[in-house]
Write a structure and sequence with these properties.
mainly alpha; Serine Threonine Protein Phosphatase 5, Tetratricopeptide repeat; two-stranded antiparallel ribbon; 23 helices; 46% helix; 3% strand
């Protein structure tokens, strides 16, 4: 009886309550009035740019340590070390962190901007410049990821909110075609008169709302992608080389994309990831990332007994061997550049001891050239793209008759050398290289039509200092400079410089699309499509 009475009273209360409420009011009871229903895309824009500099909210220092510096910097022999990593001595290694980072950080935020400002999005037809910038940021990252692995999830990537948790794989050729299309449309859509421009300018700490610089960034990236496919699809390359050059690439170092970093709020976040990686007591990797003999010998020029013909960047990149700790930063151990040497590639500790110490222990970082500590301010700007690259690519395009490029190969080559030598002053004012010094260098090493492709490839290789993951791709495509390969005992490539990353084991096991979609065989010697592999 008591239960019946309680039920009756409950029904009565419900009737009384609902009598004064309509259906909408009842529905609204289930809505949290404090919940976020819209997010300003400009917040996502700032986060995406921060992620471009490997310093976003989901920052993983291994993205810089293992990929840009530890793998690529060693594979293309700017650096050498005594360890047995994939980049240094070609041991098999799954560099899974870069896969995870690229899919969860900057490209994800760019993809969300594109979605929300596109058809059916809450900002459809609005925030034109934010959308255009995002359509540049996403190809900036995704072309790198496909360069590392080959075929990857692309068209269905970053669509988990739609229930796509196991995205299909796209062929690298199709990814490049879409990235080039995106860059073309994005550059054309920028509009400084857009009503949201002031907010975009506040969110943009890369170019501070300068849409012309964004367009130059986009067209420069288009030129890079076009030339990257030039060996396997010259028609596609020619079309977009012509578009990029006509649109206007970066023309001077004032156009360069430097993301300004800060001292905090804490380690890694908002800070320069390369500096943090190499700083003693934190990343502390400087002692295992010493300049290679290959790199130092090229910078020291054809006469090792003289400094007169040295590349002026030698004195920007290094101070020679240093003693460096948390209390003694950059104590120079050898002030005479004639005695500066690089670490031979492929050497381990015992080999160094035998050759340089007569069998006695040698402390590598006190013997071989290390990175200049002036380059490693924690709040130093982070280099994303620069004008010299476009000049070198234009020179190559003219030589190979790819697309329509005004000027001569020599003029673009020499402009590239000048820009490349003079682009490091944002890191430190002392890194100034005068026009007269560049002129001297160009007179000592003049443009040589017969060997121009090698000259261009070598200068592009030097200029990608700080951007080693892109330099690795440049080298795979051009073959320049000719590098000394390492056949260290037990290596996974038969003594050949790696051509591809291994896919993460979790991806291979967890995504059923991997079996039919990934680039195979999954070996470090397999070539991706633009490197002559299967599409």
């Amino acid at each position: 009886m008591k239960h019946i009475l309680k039920l009756a009273m409950s029904i009565l209360l419900i009737l009384i309550f609902t009598a004064g409420c309509d259906t909408d009011e009842l529905h609204n009871l289930n809505i949290n009035p404090n919940a976020v229903t819209e997010i300003d895309m400009n917040f996502f824009m700032t986060t995406a740019i921060l992620g471009m500099a490997s310093a976003g909210p989901l920052v993983d220092n291994r993205n810089t340590d293992y990929t840009n510096l530890g793998f690529a910097g060693h594979a293309i022999q700017h650096f050498a070390g005594t360890g047995t990593s994939a980049g240094d001595k070609y041991f098999e290694e799954n560099i899974s962190n870069v896969w995870q980072y690229f899919y969860r950080d900057s490209p994800k935020y760019a993809a969300e901007i594109i979605k929300q400002t596109g058809p059916g999005g809450i900002y459809e037809g609005k925030q034109v410049n934010t959308r255009s910038a995002a359509r540049i940021i996403r190809p900036f990252w995704m072309h790198r990821l496909t360069d590392f692995y080959g075929n990857i999830p692309y068209s269905e990537a970053h669509r988990g909110i739609e229930g796509i948790y196991q995205p299909k794989y796209d062929k690298q050729k199709d990814i490049y075609i879409d990235c080039l299309k995106e860059l073309d449309e994005a550059c054309a859509a920028f509009n400084a008169s857009d009503m949201d421009y002031p907010n975009f300018a506040k969110a943009d700490f890369l170019f501070h709302g300068d849409v012309e610089k964004w367009k130059k960034f986009g067209y420069s990236l288009m030129l890079r992608l076009a030339m990257r496919v030039s060996n396997v699809d010259p028609g596609l390359a020619a079309n977009y080389v012509t578009k990029a050059v006509a649109g206007g690439t970066m023309a001077g170092n004032g156009d360069n994309a430097w993301a300004q970093m800060a001292m905090g709020p804490y380690n890694w976040v908002n800070q320069n990831g390369l500096s943090r990686s190499l700083w003693p007591g934190d990343g502390g990797l400087w002692s295992s990332n010493l300049f290679s003999k290959t790199f130092i010998d090229i910078l020291k020029g054809s006469d090792p007994s003289s400094t007169a013909d040295d590349d002026p960047r030698l004195y920007i990149f290094t101070q020679g061997p240093i003693k460096w700790s948390a209390t003694d930063l950059g104590v120079i151990l050898e002030p005479d550049p004639l005695k500066w040497i690089g670490l031979p590639v492929g050497y381990d500790a015992s080999m160094i001891n035998n050759e340089y110490g007569g069998g006695n222990p040698v402390t590598p970082y006190e013997h071989f050239c290390a990175i200049n500590t002036k380059m490693l301010r924690i709040d130093a700007p982070y280099l994303l793209m620069y004008a010299a690259e476009s000049e070198f690519l234009k020179a190559e395009a003219i030589l190979r008759n790819i697309g329509t490029v005004p000027g001569t190969a020599q003029s673009h080559y020499e402009a590239g050398v000048r820009l490349a030598m003079q682009m490091y002053t944002p890191l430190d004012p002392s890194f100034t290289v005068t026009d007269a010094r560049v002129d001297t260098y160009l007179s000592q090493y003049p443009y040589d039509e017969a060997n121009a492709l090698e000259q261009i490839g070598t200068q592009l290789w030097i200029s990608k200092f700080l951007m080693w993951w892109d330099s690795w791709s440049d080298w795979r495509r051009t073959g320049y400079p000719v590098l000394v390969e390492v056949n260290y005992p037990g290596n996974a490539t038969g003594g050949k410089i790696p051509r591809k990353f291994l896919y993460p084991p979790a991806e291979a096991a967890g995504n059923p699309n991997f079996a039919d979609g990934a680039t195979k065989p999954d070996k470090m010697t397999t070539r991706v499509w633009w490197d002559g592999g299967s599409d």
